[in-house]
Write a structure and sequence with these properties.
The chain has about 140 residues and is mainly α. The protein has helices at about 5-15, 15-35, 50-60, 65-85, 90-105, 110-130, 135-140, and strands at about 40, 45.
């Protein structure tokens, strides 16, 4: 084995996949959850400013603004929580990746550099799963 391959192997062995997956789950859950918290008062009461944004600025096609506001807000709360605990990780990551795509296409087309940063961890979690430190693995559903 050549020296570069040995270095790569040592790095791979030093960074356990379970820890990497946990880091990616918590890291990508954070911006979505914090975004969801800006849309509510109290536990989950949609704010008037959120309703205004969805009615006047975001304009997601095919959905009434009120429904879009509720779906986005509740999704930004539910799916990050699922990611952090590692439950239904692949579907939760897929839902957030779909939300990212909708944001990119219809809400903020110029935000692609940030959206790519979101897409990377989400794609990893969809492809590789939640890792050993997850409820999915404890419950043997992934």
């Amino acid at each position: 084995m050549n020296p570069v391959a040995r270095i790569h192997q040592r790095i791979t062995e030093a960074v356990p996949e379970a820890g990497l997956a946990l880091l990616l789950r918590v890291g990508i859950a954070t911006p979505f959850f914090l975004s969801g918290r800006t849309k509510v008062e109290g536990l989950l009461t949609i704010t008037p400013s959120t309703q205004y944004l969805f009615a006047e600025e975001y304009r997601v096609p095919l959905l009434p603004p009120d429904l879009a506001a509720h779906l986005a807000t509740y999704s930004e709360h539910l799916f990050p929580i699922l990611l952090v605990v590692g439950l239904a990780t692949r579907p939760a990551a897929a839902a957030l990746l779909l939300m990212t795509l909708v944001i990119q296409l219809f809400v903020e087309p110029g935000g692609w550099p940030v959206h790519l940063l979101w897409a990377g961890p989400l794609a990893y979690l969809i492809a590789r799963g939640p890792g050993a430190l997850s409820l999915d693995r404890v419950l043997k559903i992934d």
